[in-house]
Amino acid sequence: MSRALQLEFVASATAVDRLPTTRAEIAFVGRSNVGKSSLLNAIAGEKKLARVSNTPGRTQTLDLFRCERGGGTVVDCPGYGYAKVSKSTRRAWLPMLERYMLEREQLEMIVLLVDGEIGPTASDLHMLEWLRQQDLPHTVVATKHDKVKPSQRRNRQQELAARCELPAAAIVSVSVTDETGLTRLRELVREWLT
Predict the structure, then answer these.
(1) At what angle are helices 153-164 and 122-133 packed, to 10 degrees?
(2) What are the pLDDT digits (tens) for 176-190?
(3) How many folded domains does the chain comprise?
(4) The pTM is what?
(5) CB-based contacts of 169: which residues, under 8 Å, 6+ apart?
(6) CA 57 → CA 52, 88, 93, distances in Å?
């Protein structure tokens, strides 16, 4: 297993122009309750680095973490789709998220998380199409790999890839519970930030 990423919380912001400058950056994006914060904690080998909750919509700001002393930064973005917050708050997230992804010059990669158990939702596919239209660099990561029965994993990955219009090998499957795929994801993060 690879060495955990050393992530250190730096700042939270509600707008891209309020984030500190950085050399290179990766954004973790996905619908509410897909496991963005849990995955950040897992790749860092920490339990309480990013705030995790059973209540969808806990992350309401752009939360920036420094990676390995000068190795760039990782941003935990607010989730889109269902969340237990007011409609006005939820409506504000998408413009903030879109502006961040379009205006952040240091953004090297957008990691789009989709639920590997249920597959991409309509909002995931909408986000994926928007990323393609904007020609933004992105990688699809399927979370909750452990919740898919072993006998169904290959078919599920192929179905998920087909719905995302990607080759199956392009999708990184991960599990916070059994640590599947964490080594590969850590290596990718380091590569994107160099």
Answers:
(1) 50
(2) 999 999 999 999 999
(3) 1
(4) 0.89
(5) none
(6) 10, 13, 10
